[in-house]
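Priority: medium. Attachment 1 of 2:
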């Protein structure tokens, strides 16, 4: 039996190159070795305000992108979170067992709540939903970017606590899988902040659906420094080092080799080759995306995915409800 992995991306906007490199690319790479379940986590997206019509559109777009990057529905289960009720059901059981203090310490909560005028309780309770996503599928591994480190740690602590209280081996304790290069892709305009799909500054991010012209322009205008020599030095050349990581991930070459190759060629040449590389990766994905988004195939795949996910998830939910004493028959 293959070991299980689970991961998800929020349909909060079109995914960026950061989402692709940090997480989605690994989804494809790992699907042969593991029994994979990949979710479009739309219930996570509503922890901050969303326009309903745009959310629906983005949900379909993200599903199409999952398939366009190479997630194979014959190997992996792909589904939309709201189509599997066990996610919201288990989230409540978990919410009742997580401390408010624990939730308030999450940096994602601090960052996101600082940006909201009025903070919904869902934003604070969000990690309970994420813990639920992972444990429902008995996931041993979770491919994610570095910004999810704290949430995975919280999941691991929760599983320990739960199993201690209710019996060993009820829940599987997951481990994160981070990519070798690009576990934290930074903003092209401010390399001290992560590239984020909900960043309002379009120049800070490359969307997976950006056209070649936009990609070239954004990489050309990415913030670097005045040192002028291509080096991987995150302290003094943070912007450039971020571009090198992107190059390393997409070309699957070691950072050292890239630095050797471009060391004396100047930033202009490096940026122009990087832009070509990004375009060469995204163009075929966009081509497949355009076919998928216009077809009914997408709905069929998501229906089959939700049915499969439901089978597994409802069993875990039942196991948890039983030990917690809220299944009386
Ligand atoms: P939002 O801006 O709406 O919070 P996000 O861009 O942070 O979205 P998520 O949907 O929260 O994206 O994350 C999906 C996956 O992408 C997660 O595994 C996350 O760790 C990863 N990820 C997000 N941003 C980056 C980044 N800049 N570098 C590497 N991985 C990232
Ligand atoms: N919280 C993640 C998205 C997410 C996720 C998950 C990732 C929701 N549920 C389960 C891995 C496993 C985020 O905001 N980046």
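Attachment 2 of 2:
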């Amino acid at each position: 039996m293959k070991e299980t992995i689970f991961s998800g991306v929020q349909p909060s906007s079109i995914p960026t190159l950061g989402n692709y490199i940090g997480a989605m690319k690994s989804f494809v790479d790992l699907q042969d070795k593991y029994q994979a379940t990949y979710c479009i986590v739309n219930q996570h997206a509503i922890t901050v305000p969303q326009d309903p019509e745009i959310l629906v559109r983005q949900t379909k777009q993200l599903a199409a992108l999952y398939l366009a990057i190479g997630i194979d529905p014959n190997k992996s289960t792909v589904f939309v979170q709201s189509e599997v009720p066990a996610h919201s059901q288990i989230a409540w059981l978990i919410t009742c067992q997580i401390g408010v203090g624990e939730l308030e310490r999450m940096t994602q909560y601090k960052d996101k709540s600082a940006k909201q005028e009025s903070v919904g309780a869902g934003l604070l309770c969000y990690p309970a939903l994420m813990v639920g996503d992972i444990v429902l599928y008995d996931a041993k591994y979770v491919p994610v970017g570095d910004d999810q480190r704290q949430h995975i740690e919280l999941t691991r602590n929760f599983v320990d606590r739960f199993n201690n209280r209710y019996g060993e081996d009820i829940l599987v304790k997951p481990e994160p899988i981070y990519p070798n290069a690009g576990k934290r892709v930074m903003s092209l305009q401010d390399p001290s902040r992560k590239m984020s799909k909900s960043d309002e500054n379009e120049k800070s991010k490359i969307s997976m659906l950006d056209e070649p012209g936009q990609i070239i322009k954004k990489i050309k205008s990415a913030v670097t420094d005045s040192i002028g020599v291509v080096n991987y030095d995150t302290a003094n050349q943070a912007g450039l080092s971020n571009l090198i990581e992107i190059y390393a991930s997409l070309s699957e070459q070691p950072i050292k080799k890239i630095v050797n190759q471009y060391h004396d060629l100047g930033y202009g040449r490096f940026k122009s080759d990087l832009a070509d590389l990004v375009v060469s990766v995204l163009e075929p994905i966009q081509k497949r995306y355009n076919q998928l988004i216009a077809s009914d195939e997408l709905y069929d795949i998501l229906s089959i995915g939700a049915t499969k996910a439901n089978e597994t998830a409802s069993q875990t939910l039942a196991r948890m409800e039983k030990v917690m004493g809220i299944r009386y028959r």
